[in-house]
Each structure stands twice: as structure tokens, then as C-alpha cells.
Amino acid sequence: MEIPFEHRQSAHCETGVAANLMTHYGLDINESMAFGIGSGLFFGYLPFIRLNHLPLTTYRINTGGIMKRLTKRLGVQLSMTQFRNPAKAMDALDRKLEEGVPVGCQTGGYWLPYFPQAYRFHFNMHNIVVIGRDGEDYKISDPIFEAPVTCHRRDLVKARFAKGALAPKGKMYFVESLPSAPDLPRAVKRGIREVCRTMLKAPVSMIGVKGIRKLAQQVERWPRKFGSEKALLYLGQVIRMQEEIGTGGAGFRFIYAAFLQQAADVLATPRFAELASEMTAIGDHWRQFAVAGARNCKGRARPGDSYAAMAAILNQCADREAALYKDLLALAA
Question: Does the pLDDT value for residue 246 go beyond 80?
């Protein structure tokens, strides 16, 4: 049994799942539009949260937040459930599949056997859509892969109940109903306003533009505070969160730029396209930070790759983003 489901490969799992589920039910939403309406863009330097024993730097809102905001703003009714018992979680999944309903699941990517070994690490925020079952094998639309894949029941159970930070706890979700005519312009504006307010007006120093400046301050201090070896571990973690987990490159800045290009058409406001170009340029600047950091991590640092120079790039990104969000907020009022 396999549900007819259009699988589209995407840059990021949650936005890909969200866009594919909406499209399945007749709302032609692509990944960047899902990311933008869902206010996915974010920044947080959160050293009190550890991922693989290193401080967390995040470039997107909390897991599940994009899906929740997207569906709410489009008027889509979404059912979302977590479980304590793996058997009950799998029974619930099987029932929805028998009804012909594609089911989104949050998983620990390390336990999904179709992931190449080089890409496996303990990351509990990977989203997939289960679209069928044949005995003990489940058919999965994993948006970061080119085509649907197959996963045995025992591996899917392990992935759905992975332990550690941000454990998925068997989370599954599916669409219950959709509006006949969602108000796309209103949803786009609401998505933009929330991102801008968070990035500009967060009340704590670790979030938004202030958080980028906080990270810059810390990056410059790491060699003196921790020594070169530990500083490189911290630096590598930031870059991995930006370029691998912050999928699409530069911590989602390129995906958000694509959203702003579409917003220009939806809202009939060409200025959004100009700001999309600026966001792309800011993303390129984030990439300069990542390249310099990668050269340090690989022992190939150049004279201009010092920690002070990398901190300066981050401060420049913060300045440019602050100006862009102020312009966006005025346009989306």
C-alpha cells in the first residue's frame, strides 16, 4: 500500500515536508514560501544548550514551529501528537496510512538506515513523511533525498524514539482540513513581521541581531578562553549549524531571499525583490565567515582568517541584517 504523493526534493527537511504536504492537499506552496510564511528565519547563540557536548547556535525557529505557523496562517487544521509507547505510536501511524493519509514524523536522523554513514550524527529534529507500508517496510518521502526511500519498522521505531536533546517522542502530524481560499498576502505579511520583530526586538542578548553580535564577541575570545584546540571545536560547531543544519547555505539566508522574491509578486511590491538581493549578499557574507572558519578547522588558515577577522565579519552581517529587517518591517506593516 502506497499513497500517491508528489515527492519533491528540498534543501531542508521541515520546510520540504511542509511544502509537500500542502501541495498534496492542493495548496501549491514551495519550500521557500513555507519557510517565509512560517517565520523560519531566526538566530540564537544559546551556550546553555548543548548539542554533541558543544554550545548550540541556531539559525531557525524551534523544530515544528515552521509547520505550526504556516498552517495557522493559511487556515490549515493540523493534528500533531506525541507518544510514550512505541507500539501505540506505530499503531497510530498504521491507521492513518490505511486511511490514505500521509503522515509527517519527527525523527532522529542517526537511526535512519538510508542516510549515508558520513552524514549520520545524533540530530533529533529530522522531519519525514511516511507515505506507505509493505509488511515491515515503510515507504518514506524524505525531502532531502532525490526519491522516496524505504525504512524497516525497527529502524523507524528507533528514529521516532531517539534519545537525547530535543527527543522526538514519537511525534507525528497530518492535515485534517484546509480552507477553500487561504489569504496568501496576509499570511506572507504576518510571516515577515514576526521574523523582523524577533530579529530586531528580542529582549535578550543571545537572540536576533543582538545574538549575532554576542556570537562575534565570543568568537574573538575563544582562543584566549579555551585554547586553540577547544576553540576549533566551538568554531566547527557554529559552521556546521550554519551550513549543514542551517540548510540551503548561510543559515537559511538564501532560502529566505527566495521567499522575498516571491513576496514581491504576491504583494505586488518590487521593493521586496531588491531586499531579496540584499539578503542574498548578506548570505554570501555569512559564507565568508564559514570559509574562513573551515580553513582554520582544517589547519589551512590564511593571514586574514584570524578569530578577530571572523568576528568582524559577523558584526558586519549583524549591521546589514538590522538595516534590512527595518526596511522589511516597514513594507509589511
Answer: no
Q: In whole angstroms, how far apart are CA 256 and each of 26, 30, 114, 294?
A: 23, 12, 29, 24
pLDDT over threshold 90, residue 311: yes
Indicate the pLDDT class of residue 163, thresholds 50, 70 and 90. very high
Residue 4 lies inside a defined structural domain of this protein: no
Please tell me whether the overall predicted TM-score, pTM, comes out greater than 0.85 for this model: yes
Measured between alpha carbons, how far is 310 from 305 in angstroms, rounded to an integer?
A: 7
Q: What is the CATH number of the domain that holds 103?
A: 3.90.70.10
In terms of domains, do 280 and 214 share one? Answer: yes
Same structural domain, 217 and 311: yes
Residue 26 lies in a domain: yes
Reported as a single tens digit per residue, the pLDDT across 84-101 is 999 999 999 999 999 999
CB atoms within 10 A of CB 84: 9
CA dist 62 and 43 (Å) reads 11
Domain range for 196 is 184-331
